[in-house]
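FW: tagging you since you asked about this chain on Friday. Here's the raw sequence from the shared folder, copied in full. Didn't touch anything.
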Amino acid sequence: MKSIYKHAVAAAAMAFGLAAHADIHVGVILSTTGPGASLGIAEQNSVKLWPSEIAGEKLRITFLNDESDTTAAAKSANRLVSESNVDVVVGPSLTPTSLSALDIVARGNTPMISLAGGGAIIDPPDGPRRWAFRMAPPESIAVSLVLEHMMAHGVKKVGVVALATSFGEGYTKTLERLAPGKGLAVVSVERYNQTDTSVTAQVLRLLAAQPDAVYIMSSGTPGALPQIELSRRGFKGPVYQTQGVANNDFLRVGGKDLEGGYMTVGPVLVAEQLPDSSPLKAPASEFVKHYETTYGAGSRSLFAASAWTAVAWLEAAVPQALKKGRPGTPEFRAALRDALELMKDVVTPEAIYSMSATNHNGADPRSQVLVRIVDGRWKLQN
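HL: got it, structure written out here
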């Protein structure tokens, strides 16, 4: 009996020793192929620049590609949580894939830092969403900025082309809710799929409603498709996009048909153009320098910045979580979730974040600026 007890104590001591020296295991799910690849590749590039440790604990990273597919994202989440016992999941890249991973990650009591833009990922922050966090600012911040610009330029009627996803739906509903209060009417809403190769029918129906401006609610390179069609159909009114398309691949695919278009983006995309008074200018400029030193001039990406913001969140939260548990344990995962929820005034290249139990995003209005595409480049609008 004493021998059994001795072995049990020795085994427990060994297990404690292993836990005490466990790495922080981060599972990263990205869309590095498929329609979301222009987001996921930039995010992966940024993760490769992450520090090797946080708060004295080594980082161990497992990358999985969900191929921009919801089923693959769910399988990836299950593998990371059930088999790899990760401490936190970063990603997925897209709103639909994030939603497909959410329940699985939550069942494993593992925090998830989504890199996607849909409000449905975190709202309301209860049930499975208690474990989810999202860095892209609320749709209301971006939409309000666009509506103010529309009002200043005499727009009265707005047409919409949106992805038939929760991302597109979230932006559409926000616009329909806020537009009447600004004296604007949403006269037509057309939807398309991320894999569609033509939106001719949708654009023709939209133009029949005679909008003064068009708001495209899309992500990745598929967001160029409606704007190309509008340009070739001779639409002369202003065209607006969300930050879901803010990367160089979008500019490359759309070419001259995007010229003059507007979009709301994170300040990091125009870091050098920010006023010196902006608290985001220094961190945004520092990230751009770091990223472009590795990947080349002009390679900056809003999505790369989001992946960098994810590690900034971990740098803020991990020291607090370590007070309550060791990596690799349920206690650490729960404490990490709590620490993310309690972050205050965390400055990143993308925004300044303050979380709460009712707000798992925490970005303030400084998280968005309006830019225009001029000569194939982003130009900050004052």
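FW: Confidence is low (pLDDT under 50) at residues 1-20.
HL: agreed, and The chain is about 40% helix and 20% strand.
FW: great, closing this out.
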